[in-house]
Design goal:
Length: 197
């Protein structure tokens, strides 16, 4: 059973983080590097969207987009941006611990900088046949410029992203360190683009 106090604490933590954020976060590299793989039409979902950099990118590409996050502050800010830009995007406050996306409802699902292994099967189930997954998050690679969470529960083991989505056909997989200069990128991350057959 989900602890309501824990949920409230997590929501408060993320609300405080997003309260003072002025800018929308940039889209993840898994999207920007593989933009050519985006479908020309369809329904997209970004899970654990935060301020929705990925969701906005998907909506700008013409996809009917939903964005879900625990933080109502982030969702309100994202919905405001989407309305200002007249984008086909609906932002929704959702606790992914007990709210799962409907089965076979999306042509594309995007997740970045978030890892809940118990959610992976639901993500696969929510994709329609031919649907695409764009996933990027932190690994346990030891780097001097480590970014992201420190707890191993929220870090991928080497090759784990492929294992978590072994039921999908991988199209692109990268697990590497990004350099510090001249263009700094997040370090210790893996990303996957995969298709549901």
């Amino acid at each position: 059973m989900v602890n309501n106090d824990s949920q409230a604490t997590q929501r408060q933590k993320w609300n405080q983080r997003y309260q003072h954020s002025q800018a929308v976060n940039s889209p993840a590299r898994v999207l920007t590097d593989n933009r050519h793989l985006l479908p020309s039409d369809g329904d997209a979902l970004e899970l654990a969207c935060g301020l929705g950099g990925n969701a906005l990118e998907l909506a700008r590409a013409g996809l009917r987009t939903q964005a879900w996050d625990l933080s109502d502050v982030a969702i309100e800010k994202l919905q405001h941006v989407a309305e200002q830009q007249q984008l086909p995007l609906i932002a929704r406050c959702a606790d992914l611990k007990h709210q799962r996306p409907p089965i076979q409802s999306f042509d594309l699902i995007c997740v970045s900088n978030f890892l809940d292994r118990e959610l992976c099967a639901s993500i696969v189930a929510a994709l329609r046949p031919g649907g695409l997954l764009f996933y990027q998050t932190f690994t346990r690679l030891d780097t001097t410029d480590h970014s992201g969470p420190s707890h191993p529960d929220f870090l991928l083991k080497p090759g784990e992203l492929l294992q978590l989505f072994s039921g999908l056909a991988p199209l692109v997989y990268q697990e590497t360190l990004y350099g510090k200069s001249p263009d700094p990128k997040p370090s210790n991350q893996a990303y996957l683009v995969a298709r549901k057959d």
